């Protein structure tokens, strides 16, 4: 009886994973319908490709100490704006690499900004565990709205947007950002402004 239950459980998990993978593939290819967010229609939000070359959208969210921070606080820096959550496994994998890149490029005017779609307590624990060395802003619906403004119409996590020193969005990546891709984008931006 136990073997039968274990086999049934394995089949259910496998089928769920396959269905989720299919859905993710369809949405990544842009072939599935984008759900309309509560605060704006999907048609009003830019997609991840059309935001490239546009002026970075403005937003303001609380920092870890509760102070309100606007994205314009970092005008003049090269920005890597990373939308993430503490419960997101790919986020857990890329944050240590972002910590490494922040250390590498800090003196060249590069700032990673984490936008946590989460609550303060788990974010604070996460930051301590991963020794995060860059600013983190917190929000739930407001952070989701900011991600949509940067082209994340489907609500993928993680999602990263790169902004040049002039405030123009130059690159976006949906899903886990490979270290090599992030390093290449940043080094080109640093070289172009140096």
TrEMBL record:
Residues 33-44 have a biased composition (Low complexity). Keywords: Signal. InterPro entries: Redoxin, Thioredoxin-like_sf, Thioredoxin_domain, Thioredoxin_ResA/DsbE_sf. Residues 1-19 form the signal peptide. Residues 28-49 are annotated as: Disordered. Pfam families: Redoxin. Gene3D superfamilies: Glutaredoxin (3.40.30.10). This is Peroxiredoxin.
């Amino acid at each position: 009886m136990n073997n039968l239950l274990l086999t049934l459980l394995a089949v259910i998990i496998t089928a769920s994973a396959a269905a989720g993978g299919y859905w993710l593939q369809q949405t990544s290819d842009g072939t599935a319908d984008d759900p309309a967010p509560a605060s704006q229609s999907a048609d009003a939000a830019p997609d991840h490709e059309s935001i490239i070359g546009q002026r970075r959208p403005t937003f303001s969210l609380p920092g870890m100490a509760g102070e309100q921070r606007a994205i314009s606080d970092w005008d003049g820096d090269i920005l890597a704006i990373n939308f993430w959550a503490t419960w997101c496994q790919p986020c857990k994998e890329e944050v240590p690499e972002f910590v490494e890149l922040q250390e590498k490029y800090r003196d060249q005017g590069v700032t990673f900004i984490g936008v946590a779609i989460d609550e303060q307590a788990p974010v604070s624990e996460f930051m301590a565990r991963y020794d995060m060395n860059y600013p983190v802003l917190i929000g739930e619906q407001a952070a989701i709205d900011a991600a949509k403004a940067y082209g994340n119409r489907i609500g993928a996590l993680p999602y990263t947007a790169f902004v040049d020193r002039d405030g123009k969005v130059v690159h976006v990546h949906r899903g886990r950002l490979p270290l090599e891709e992030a390093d290449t984008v940043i080094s080109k931006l640093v070289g172009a402004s140096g």
